[in-house]
Specification:
Strand content: 35-45%
Distance between the termini: 79 Å
Number of helices: 5
Radius of gyration: 24 Å
Shape: globular
Number of strands: 24
Order of helices and strands: HEEEEEEEEEEEEEEEEHEEHHEEEEEHE
Largest sheet: 6 strands, antiparallel
Length: 331
Amino acid sequence: MKKKCFQGVRIVALTLALSAVFTIAAFAAEVKVGTVNVSTTLYLRSSASTSSNILGSAANGAKVVILSKSGDWYEVIYKQTKGYMHASYLKASTSADFAIGTGAINANGVNFRKSPSLSAGIIAMLKKDKSLEIVGIENGWYKVTVDGKPGYVYPDYVTVKGSSTTTTTTTTTTTTVTEKNATTDAATNTTTTNTNTNGSSSKDSLRSDVVAYAKKFLGCKYRYGTMNGKTFDCSGFTSYVYKHFGYSLNRSAAGQVSNGTKISSRSDLKPGDLVLFRDPKVNSGAASHAGLYVGDGKFIHCSSGGGCVKYNYLSDSYYNRYFIGGRRIIN
């Protein structure tokens, strides 16, 4: 009887040991945040080579999901497309809030946790194919919302929808950008620089992303002095939106007059540009109110009068009277 008990103990111990091994293997793929650090744009490629197809491009300050490293390259997800970016032009970090995209659970019984830790409380057990929105990365975990509830899921169990490598190359335009990803020719031991052309489409795409992100906060309440993702004041809203994409704006509307480059004419405004107003009855300084242009004469802003994040038109009586110009943050 004692012998059987001893054998049972050994079996349990072995089972626990194997379980620990499999647990370590299962939780091997921590993701990181990559922030693009270039003076122009950085290409997303189909493989870890400057001669591979270009899948897209990211402007300075854009954020990507770093999946793994292969030599001098990172495998990443950018705008729900999987590809490769040269590691020397990405600044890696462990945490950031940014819109990654829609994902789906790829296994049954996946823990949806309260914080990014295996010891954290479990909110729910998620079934395979359950949809979620990935809104950031924290300490190797995906920060997500499931049915409107915030929480964390380990990245091994999440498939980012659309994140498959394609072979489509970007369309070139007359604006030339140099990709400074140097490669060494082993035969001659000489260094060459691969140069590709890419237009302003990447900047336009980033501006569109800024507008799309801003729209997520429609209806959020106005509260003076706040910018916490739930309540904002006018400049807090514009600052919060741009911070999400790695841009730091001055905190006040008056201060934002000096951010970016000046846009004097309404006809020159592009989506994502700051629009600024000065009502001398409210503030006699450089500006009293700020918003973000979305196109077609419309802008989004956190309005003290309206009490929330909402749309208005530059042609509306009040805003038409006090409009003083715009500032372009993404140049």
